[in-house]
Amino acid sequence: MKRRSRTRRVLKWVGLVGCVLIVVAWGVSTTRTLVFIAESRIVLFGAGCFFTTWSAEEVTEVIVARGHARKGWNYIVLPRETLSSGLGFCWPSLLGSNGRFGSSGYLEIPCWLMLLLTAIPTAIFWYRDRRPPRGHCQRCGYNLTGNISGVCPECGEVV
Ligand SMILES: [Zn+2]
């Protein structure tokens, strides 16, 4: 018999909240970019993508391209011309120097992929956690057709 698990009930809501947050962050990222600049690493969320690089040249390049970015947290409003191409419909990419994953490279994860990876398990949790149909025990899902005792023979729930 189908059991309604507590973990699944929690996860389906956590997943839904996660999906909503990703969509909101995605929307905000099309006009604003959050950048964290460290000595040899940049973490950037903007233009519908999460991007991080640990290559010295890339770090310099991003600092130069973003103009006013300083070390530490930066919250930047992107120039208008970047908006049309900055919706994040790109492929995820992971690259190391010389085509090898090593001491320098970058990682880019688009929002659509994060949303997909969150939405698929969430949809499964919602599907599997749906209420048993009418005529079935609401606690364990047992089919109560023809039951006249008023008690579920499977779990003992009064129906
Ligand atoms: Zn039952």
Question: Could you explain the architecture of this structure?
Answer:
The protein is built from three helices and six strands, in the order H-E-E-E-H-E-E-E-H. A hairpin with an 8-residue loop joins strand 5 and strand 6. Helix 1 (6-29) runs antiparallel to helix 3 (111-128). The protein folds into two domains: 6-128, no CATH class; 133-159. 33% of the residues lie in helices and 20% in strands. A six-stranded antiparallel sheet has the order 4-1-2-3-6-5. Residues 137, 139-140, 142, 152, 154-155, 157 line the site of zinc ion.
Mean pLDDT: 80
Instruction: Report the biggest beta sheet as strand number plus sense, adding barrel if it closes.
Output: 6 strands, antiparallel
Distance between the termini: 17 Å
Q: In sequence order, what are the helices and strands, one letter per element?
A: HEEEHEEEH
Strands of the biggest beta sheet: in what spatial order? 4-1-2-3-6-5
Q: How many structural units, i.e. domains?
A: 2
Give the names of the bound compounds. Answer: zinc ion
Form type: rod-shaped
Category by helix and strand content: alpha+beta
The helix count comes to: 3
Extract low-pLDDT stretches.
80-84
Whole-angstrom Rg? 24 Å
Total strands: the figure is: 6
Helix content: 25-40%
- Give the strand content: 15-25%
Q: What key attributes describe this structure?
A:
159 residues; 20% strand
Summary?
By secondary structure, the protein is α+β, with helices and mostly antiparallel strands. It has 2 domains: 6-128, no CATH class; 133-159.
